[in-house]
């Protein structure tokens, strides 16, 4: 029975993580094929507006300028914000399984619009922007739905292995995201070529996510009914009642805290452990599934705000700024293989998520977060020095260590905390709030980074920009502030 339960859990986990994979894939799907889409190589100018025999008369290139390309790409965050805001209402209406299926449906629509652009909507190049909004909606809904579902799976499992590895299961959400980013980069390289010389190949790239979404919908329709998690909750309660004599299982089911022998109280996943007055406060709330009720509760408000803080720090940590510098810095070491830089950075992100998967239930969330932020702080300092003094090797090494430190904990753990710092019935509301803050922070960083960098830098006598690394001292201050908050507030009464 236990082995059967393990197989069923793995099937459900992998199925739900496909939605997280979409999120990562959409983030990166247009990065590599930019030249193929915009026809920026000189030899491509004659192809703009021409028909391709590979795609049923659709043009190989859209021929849009870089400004409109950037705007249509950035509008993805707007769709993500809207999806996160609406996620709580969607989960309350169709359930968490229904939301996962909805992400698949939205991905099919978004991928289809993008693949057929501009055929479906006359000759409007802006049809690509509309598909990015739909992709953003799917991603915003996915990123607020998958982490709570993974937590729910681990808490309602009949298999002891799943019960005792809730942290590792939660990390699979981030692993799926970084695998999506990596696979999009690889698909772009294969379909469009190292320099984007394979015109029209970008349609293959955007088609992949639609094909995977169709497969997810088919499996979901056949194997995953919308009422599945309600049934698991009932089965879990029945098992708990039958194991009331077993102290270990009683702690796992009654307190909803999967633990290992190595964990101490502070590294325990749930703040509610040893804090019975928090449990009482959560139970006393008349409407614990509303954000207003949570923020009005003195016992729970700090933990709701802490979850939002962790998701905001994830964006303000400087990870996007480091990725921005990865191409110009690493290009000096790989001048003939600049197209592989994004793939290299994505591969590092994937590789360093694996240690988090193995360590999260062994050493705990808080120590891993402190290690991650400390590594990022040291890397930010050295990267600032390397950029200011033009130490290319030092800059290249610290870019790698910065990305690796981020992937160790600050990337995956904040998503995990959403389901562990608040009562189960409040997860959807808190998830919607926290991820909405995350999308907003992402948008702010995208707008403010370059102006801030330019404001802190200066021009030398030859008119060249100097002091570009100074902006990373700002991120260093954010890392130190986050270290203090995490050390003082996480898992404290």
Automatic annotation (TrEMBL):
The protein's name in its UniProt record: Uncharacterized protein
């Amino acid at each position: 029975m236990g082995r059967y339960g393990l197989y069923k859990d793995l099937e459900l986990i992998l199925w739900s993580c496909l939605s997280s994979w979409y999120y990562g894939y959409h983030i990166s799907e247009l990065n590599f094929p930019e030249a193929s889409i915009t026809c920026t190589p000189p030899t491509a100018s004659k192809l703009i507006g021409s028909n391709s025999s590979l795609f049923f008369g659709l043009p190989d290139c859209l021929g849009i300028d870089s400004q409109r390309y950037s705007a249509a790409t950035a509008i993805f965050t707007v769709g993500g914000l809207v999806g996160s805001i609406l996620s709580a209402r969607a989960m309350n209406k169709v359930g968490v399984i229904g939301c996962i299926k909805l992400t698949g449906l939205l991905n099919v629509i978004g991928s289809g619009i993008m693949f057929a652009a501009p055929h479906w909507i006359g000759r409007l190049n802006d049809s690509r922007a509309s598909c990015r909004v739909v992709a953003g909606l799917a991603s915003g809904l996915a990123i607020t739905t998958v982490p709570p579902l993974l937590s729910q799976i681990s808490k309602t499992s009949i298999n002891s292995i799943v019960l005792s590895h809730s942290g590792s299961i939660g990390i699979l959400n981030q692993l799926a995201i970084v695998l999506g980013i990596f696979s999009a980069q690889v698909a772009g390289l294969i379909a469009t070529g190292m320099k984007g010389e394979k015109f029209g190949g970008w349609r293959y790239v955007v088609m992949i996510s639609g094909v995977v979404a169709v497969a997810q919908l088919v499996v979901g329709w056949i194997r995953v009914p919308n009422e599945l998690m309600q049934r698991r909750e009932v089965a879990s309660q029945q098992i708990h009642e039958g194991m009331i004599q077993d102290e270990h299982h009683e702690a796992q089911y009654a307190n909803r805290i999967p633990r290992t022998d190595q964990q101490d109280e502070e590294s325990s996943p749930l703040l509610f452990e040893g804090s019975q007055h928090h449990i009482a406060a959560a139970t006393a709330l008349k409407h614990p599934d509303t954000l207003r009720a949570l923020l009005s509760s003195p016992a729970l408000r700090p933990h709701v705000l802490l979850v939002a803080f962790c998701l905001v720090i994830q964006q303000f940590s400087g990870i996007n700024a480091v990725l921005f510098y990865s191409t110009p810095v690493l290009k000096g070491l790989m001048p003939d293989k600049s197209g592989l830089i994004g793939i290299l950075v994505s591969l590092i992100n994937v590789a360093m998520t694996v240690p988090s998967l193995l360590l999260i239930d062994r050493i705990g969330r808080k120590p891993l977060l402190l290690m991650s932020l400390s590594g990022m702080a040291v890397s930010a300092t050295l990267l600032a020095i390397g950029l200011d003094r033009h130490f290319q090797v030092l800059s290249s090494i610290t870019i790698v260590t910065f990305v690796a430190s981020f992937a160790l904990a600050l990337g995956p753990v904040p998503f995990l905390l959403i389901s562990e710092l608040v009562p189960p019935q409040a997860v959807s509301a808190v998830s919607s709030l926290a991820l909405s803050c995350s999308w907003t922070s992402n948008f702010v960083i995208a707008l403010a980074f370059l102006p801030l960098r330019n404001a802190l830098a200066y021009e030398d006598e030859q008119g060249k920009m100097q002091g570009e690394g100074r902006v990373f001292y700002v991120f260093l201050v954010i890392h130190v502030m986050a270290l203090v908050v995490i050390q003082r507030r996480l898992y404290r009464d």
